[in-house]
């Protein structure tokens, strides 16, 4: 009987040992199957480049010049980000986006950061994370000289041109459903429609309209400020928390060390001249 109990105890111990070994092996296999997640900043450094979404048709903020090179205010900021993150401003890969696909390009991992004149809105904040803002903006309305629109009431029974997916699109759709909107994907299409007379006015960011009207005689920004003042900021994916933290600190740094001011003087000042103050555009951090 004693021998039977010893044998039973020995078998139980052996089975327990086998079970523990099996669990250990399963844990090791699981660890191999689930590699440690690399942080967004480390992922960018390992890739040796940072992919930043910018506009191709929105001068002076983001556009492609005659040599096929990206230029503009957001482009200058992107170069600064690349230099501070990767040690070389040329390690930025510019990904050309449109207003309507900026969020999708982030969420589908086509870009690491969006800098395409991206206005912070509650709806967008539900899908992506915005860093600290670097620019101020409001909506404006431009129209042809001789038929300048100076009040929203004048847009009733008229056609207003907007870009799909912009704050102008959302603002008028929500607040003025009686105003007919003609929507386009690209900025060039929208502004050409105004030139061609396919619309009575065009609503967009006032910072863009001021520049466009100055370079296109015959048009006036009759409504200079519409709705609340908004902010423009860089944006990242919700899961890229470390990149968001870095971008927040970087935005403050670029303001404090004068990089934002230099970008403004290089790209925006030649267009605005003394019609707009730098302090009305840039967000300052002390």
Automatic annotation (TrEMBL):
Residues 49-271 form the Solute-binding protein family 3/N-terminal domain. One of its GO terms (cellular component) is outer membrane-bounded periplasmic space. It comes from the Bacteria. Transmembrane segments: none annotated. Keywords: Signal, Transport. GO terms for biological process: amino acid transport. InterPro entries: Bact_solute-bind_prot3, Solute-binding_3/MltF_N. Belongs to the bacterial solute-binding protein 3 family. This is Amino acid ABC transporter substrate-binding protein (PAAT family). The lineage of its organism: Bacteria, Pseudomonadati, Pseudomonadota, Gammaproteobacteria, Pasteurellales.
């Amino acid at each position: 009987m004693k021998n039977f109990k010893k044998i039973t105890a020995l078998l139980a111990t052996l089975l327990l040992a086998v079970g523990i070994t099996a669990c250990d092996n399963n844990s090791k296999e699981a660890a191999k199957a689930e590699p440690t997640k690399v942080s967004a900043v480390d992922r960018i450094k390992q890739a040796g480049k940072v992919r930043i979404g910018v506009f191709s048709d929105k001068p002076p903020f983001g556009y492609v010049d005659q040599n096929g090179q990206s230029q503009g205010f957001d482009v200058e900021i992107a170069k600064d980000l690349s230099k501070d993150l990767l040690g070389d401003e040329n390690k930025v890969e510019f990904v050309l986006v449109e207003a309507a696909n900026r969020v999708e390009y982030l969420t589908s991992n086509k870009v690491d950061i969006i800098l395409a004149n991206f206005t912070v809105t509650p709806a967008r904040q539900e899908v992506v994370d915005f860093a600290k803002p670097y620019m101020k903006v409001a909506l404006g309305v431009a129209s042809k000289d001789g038929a300048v629109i100076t009040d929203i009431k004048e847009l009733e029974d008229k056609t207003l041109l907007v870009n799909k997916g912009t704050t102008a699109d959302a603002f008028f759709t929500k607040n003025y459903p009686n105003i007919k909107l003609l929507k386009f994907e690209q900025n060039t299409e929208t502004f050409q429609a105004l030139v061609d007379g396919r619309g009575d006015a065009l609503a967009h960011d006032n910072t863009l309209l001021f520049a466009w009207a100055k370079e296109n005689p015959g048009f006036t920004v009759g409504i200079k400020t519409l709705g609340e003042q908004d902010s423009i900021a860089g944006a990242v994916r919700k899961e890229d928390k470390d990149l968001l933290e870095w971008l927040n600190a970087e935005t403050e740094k670029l303001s404090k060390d004068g990089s934002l001011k230099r970008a403004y003087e290089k790209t925006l000042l030649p267009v605005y001249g003394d019609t707009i103050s730098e302090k009305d555009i840039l967000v300052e951090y002390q």
